[in-house]
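Teaching assistant here, posting this on the class forum so everyone can see the example we discussed in section. The complex has two components, and the goal was to see what a joint structure prediction looks like when all of them are supplied at once.
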Amino acid sequence: MARMKFLCDADRCIECNACVTACKNENEVPWGINRRRVVTINDGRPGERSISMACMHCTDAPCAAVCPTSCFYTTADAIVLHDKDLCIGCGYCFYACPFGAPQYPRVGNFGGRGKMDKCTYCAGGPQADNSQAEYIQYGANRIAEGKLPLCAEMCSTKALLAGDGDIIASIYRERVQKRGYGSGAWGWRTAYRQDVSV
Amino acid sequence: MRAPLRLVLAAMLMLAAGPVLAQSTLPVTDAARGTVSAEEMELQATLRGDIIRGRISIPDSRAANLIQPEGREWREFHNVTLAWIGGVALIGMLVVLVLFYLVRGPVRMEGAPSGRTIQRFNWFERANHWMTASTFIILALSGLNITFGRHVLLPLAGPEVFSAATQWGKIAHNFLSFPFSLGIVLMFLLWVRDNIPNRLDLVWLRAGGGIIGHEHPPADRFNAGQKAIFWITVLGGGLVAASGYLLIFPFFFTGMQGMQLALLVHGTLAVLMISAMLGHIYIGTIGMEGAFDAMGTGQVDYNWARAHHALWVEKEVVRARSTIDGEPRPVGAD
């Protein structure tokens, strides 16, 4: 089985936000929730980089480790998913997540949080593959159809790569060798305790 | 245990420097193209406990945090440190109480009950005590369930039942915090003047109180042990409530580091308070003969009161006499 990862080549990302839009549309993500976002560091200064960030589907995922109801599970492709029927909206996964991936619809009184929503790597949830119930709760299940996440598939500059970690890392290394520079794989150290050294 | 301790110390420091740290972002080091290194920035952020932050084009400012490696430290606190503190404090207290009961047994009343009673707590004090106590028990159980339930109840109840119970527990926890906080405030106002520590408390503590020692050093309305419970309740409960309201209103008053710190303070103080309350419940019920009446009916036996709170009884008697006797008044002077 593959070990699915995301890799954002920040030297290619042009901050067009097409990945954000594609994700929202493909998964019918509710209003106010962004499963993917583009963050620009050193904005307007030399060394500016834009990075498209979502759930990184960590090895030894912190969200799963702190969840009071143990609603997370990892698929055979190492994709970190969760069961919204078991989620109580406590917000702990957001405190533990290094990437700010968990999102909560605001429901009810106080800061009442609904069931957590996050990037599913376009792999749906625990419901039957590509069922209506799965689509309503989690969005598309492209993995079950043999396709990769739409954000990476739509990326116009091919900055955002999705797929088996070894394969996308080798694609990235090849690019860096060819062009002579690269800022590295953002989040890989934190998510996978690994970096893409060339 | 050394690493978790260091974490708690670091947390206490963060408490002082929290607002400053929360604002800091990584400085721009290298400017030229190709010299920004993801690996380097993540390493630095991990070492400094910083957040790699940028600009975002959506309204949610929290989304501008690209990577916050200290989520890992919070996880370490939540899964390891808090579990240790809670486990040792709660199981340790239970073991101590059971051993104490077996060795010392309940503290018996000295001499026979007099048959006459004296009012120790009026209806308002008792109502407030039980409002605070009953909500505290539900808050404690639902809080412990959030922290330990997945290891204890989840294997027994199964995921669906456990999740439903935890969801209701969370709702109860949020709403019952209001009567609990009100109870803490009223307790403070009702009892603070009788709980100021003084020289008598040292004498009482030196004699080991009436629980460990066998004599009853003179005490006023509250002895040193009761004063300790009062301050644990008022200060601990106050801090737990304050940090809890930060958590109920997520990100209204503070940012990511503030929320993580609020949960650290809330969880640590809460398990310590539950442990202290176990001791309080023990002494108030099976641990001491005659003690429960004070909060039950509000009337305690005169001899019990004389033994445990001699100075208080003297004052009450003097006060009662002065109301009854008073100055002799001529008939019809009212």
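For the discussion questions: The longest helix of chain A spans residues 165-179. Chain A touches chain B through 57 residues (CB under 8 Å). Think about how each of these relates to the inputs above.
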